[in-house]
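Entry 14. Structure prediction run on the chain below.
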Amino acid sequence: MATKKITKVGGGENTPQQTTFVPTAEAKGKATQLRLFAVLFWVLAIAAEAGAIFVLIKSAKPIETNTWIWMIGLIVIDLILVIIGSQIWKKANRLDPASRKDTVKFFLQNQLGVIISVIAFLPLVILIFTNKDLDGKQKGILGGIAAVALIIAGIASADFNPPSVEEYSKQSTFVQELIGTDHVYWTKSGTKFHLYSDCQYLKSDRTTEIFEGGTVADAYANNSRIKPEMSSLCSACEKRAAKEKGWTDEQLQQAKNAVINAVQNSKNR
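Output returned:
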């Protein structure tokens, strides 16, 4: 079996036990930096939309071939910029997640990319379909392209598994209950994080590099394929840790429920 490269990420081995997740100053700083980059891309996207609107309003009638090329090109540029900004924003949210306690803030922070997508395309779509200088075919083609771009941007920008302080807290605390510290392992393209570097699922020849935490939060920040939910902990590692503690399956479930309830009670206070 090939030797695995071990890459250390995040802090040290001894993470203080806590019930409520708090991002590190370094994580918050990096998240802020990423959000600024995301906003920059979104501003450029809206500028591309403004450019497309300007071209449409100022173009000669009937619309010439060059105008079509400019319009389609600006719509594509708009789409690319929106998606890049949204992906950067979602990465920032994994470093510094919102709390579900504030429903409005939680929604806005995690779905801001969708809102920006609407801003970056809907005015153009409306202008195209209400433009009296365009015939039905032209409206259908240009409006259709812009509308499809809006849908693609919205879907790509939506976060269907948004991270939260509460979810991070549950998993971090549960990991600490199992092994005494929030210290995990993961791979670049895997969908689980692990408690042991010699886990059977990390022994595959396909695994050439193992990332060593760091924390559960580090795993989420460095691998977007890992969903922020309790089931993202490797089941084999979970059972192995429980066995080492002498827990039965029932005791394991009780410990998990206790963690979930503790975080839930903390949320309600």
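The two ends are 51 Å apart (CA to CA).
Filed with the rest of this week's runs.
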